[in-house]
Amino acid sequence: MTENKALILAKTPTGYPIPGEDLLIKSSTIDLNAAPPEGGLILKTHYLSYDPYQRGKMKPPNAGSYSQPYPLDTPVINAGILRVISSSSPRFKTNDIVIGYVAFSEYQIVDAERAAKSADQGGFDVLSNPFGLDEKLFLGALGMSGLTAYSSLYEVGKPAKGETLFVSAASGAVGQIVGQLAKREGMKVIGSVGSEAKRKYIVEELGFDGAFNYKSEKPAEGLKRVLGEIGAKGVDVYYDNVGGEQLDAALGLMNDRGRVVSCGSVSQTSLKPEDAYGVKNMPLVVGKRLTIRGFIVYDPDMGPKYTEEHQKNMQKWIKDGEITVKMSVTEGIENSAEGLVGMLKGENFGKAVLKVSDL
Amino acid sequence: MTENKALILAKTPTGYPIPGEDLLIKSSTIDLNAAPPEGGLILKTHYLSYDPYQRGKMKPPNAGSYSQPYPLDTPVINAGILRVISSSSPRFKTNDIVIGYVAFSEYQIVDAERAAKSADQGGFDVLSNPFGLDEKLFLGALGMSGLTAYSSLYEVGKPAKGETLFVSAASGAVGQIVGQLAKREGMKVIGSVGSEAKRKYIVEELGFDGAFNYKSEKPAEGLKRVLGEIGAKGVDVYYDNVGGEQLDAALGLMNDRGRVVSCGSVSQTSLKPEDAYGVKNMPLVVGKRLTIRGFIVYDPDMGPKYTEEHQKNMQKWIKDGEITVKMSVTEGIENSAEGLVGMLKGENFGKAVLKVSDL
């Protein structure tokens, strides 16, 4: 028998989840030499994705989140890259590298019904990786966060050459892609980040035109300063990953007919209701004719509409070095809770993933 | 010589304008028997329109309003219904009833250049009124506020049968039209108002499904209560005339894929910046996939796109009694400042106009 550790949601957190209290590592055993279920699979987990939406799934049912919460006392779930150890399914053979939404555990036993489904239906797909790119990219730039950035930037942001885009959480999984796509479209790009190292990275490595650190400068002041430095009148597209004070700052500095792509509000999701930030610049939406639009990557006119285009272009652009991807890897299921909370707090630098085992 | 009184902006107001201080009546004289300017007109003013956007024009230049402010020590300007006393223009003859943007004064002297222009270019048009409707309707349901309601409801709100619309300032110039149009489209309609008389009016006279008085009930509670009473899950379209706390309440109770038509924020426009209301429910924009869109009736895809359709349909619907219009008339240029401030404070009941003289 082999030990099979998993990350369990033990309690509904109130603020940031607390490792050892809300999130626990639990161990069970698995017989890797046993036959897989009839028509099913046994999988070994290599990489798991950390994404901000997971905080929304740690809320009580009907708390207003857009998807069902994780049940208590069960493992946290997200996209993963796995290897087929044994297969009784005609769709897979031993050593296939697959992608799918799975429990945060070292191994997975998959029944026939699930093994028959594609990844977007809750099952698995063999990874389609013609250029032999690093597999964990398929959890980031080539996965949900990349598709999120790609679809919403084009569908809502409507990038236009010469215009100015501001993106918050700019070194994060979505932000780094949004900014690089906007640069490719000939936009001026400003990013906000939470550390000096990240600020340097997005300017020096990713070629953003300007950046500020929201922890060392008030967002309204930092954004205004950088706009002046790069000779931009205001913001045409604000790609909002954080909400709160940075949204307010952006609204105050938008150009007429600006677009706000509301992707997330990670600055607000772990706050108690009474601590929520009140956005004061909403009256400017009228006179400036702003559009603010929220979306989820699974909406039909978002991710599904852009899936093929995103895979084709992004694989090529990464291979050609046109798009650079930074990932932040937490090692070992033992450290998975800390990695998850660190991502929620913005401590990761680049797309956050958990490495469960060597691939 | 005849006395010609006018309403003058004497000072930039800080909160609500103060009659006798910020807004003054000034008198001059005019010779009504003199010939009009070569190619020009002399006009007598009958009705003038009061609209919330006028508060934005009492701000200092570059204060972020979307149009140029009124210069100090000159008359306030807005749309009016006037009679031609004498004409040297081929476009007009004596006793024509015309519409155009004019000074708040009893008489107007118009030069040739301006007399040659249409109303939407700063000049005048002879009123096109085939059904002989009350002329002051052309300042309301058949004028800018009606076109505002019509164009934005269809362009942004996208009314759909069976869905629920909530409109604030529901007995006002725009709100009463929005609500009745939505009823025509088969929507459930909820309105908020600032008095019991207005609440009764929109339910009993206009046929709204439900209403609450935001002065006697917290908007979040009132809206929730009325939604329950009419058996609606939430709000699909929020038509926002007021911003602030009611916007926050609506966001909290929107259905997925809801639309917010941002028409105005009259609750906020006369506040000092430090008193501005902070909207706390903005994070819900993401998960609910909301769209919030601001507009100005003059935007090409708004008023201009719908002008013909609006005139044709609305004239017919008013003639046929399908759309009811309530107007709030202040009498006499002497009382024009009080009428303007009353409108800004929501004291009017229906579309606010100033009657300067009998037509």
Automatic annotation (TrEMBL), chains A, B:
Chain ranges of the Enoyl reductase (ER) domain: 2-354
Pfam families hit by this protein: ADH_N_2, ADH_zinc_N
Keywords: Oxidoreductase
Coiled coil: none
CDD domains (alphabetical): PGDH (cd05288)
Molecular-function GO terms, alphabetical: oxidoreductase activity, acting on the CH-CH group of donors, NAD or NADP as acceptor
UniProt cross-references to InterPro entries, sorted A to Z: ADH-like_C, ADH_N_2, ER, GroES-like_sf, MDR_fam, NAD(P)-bd_dom_sf
Protein name: NADP-dependent oxidoreductase
Gene: RED1_1
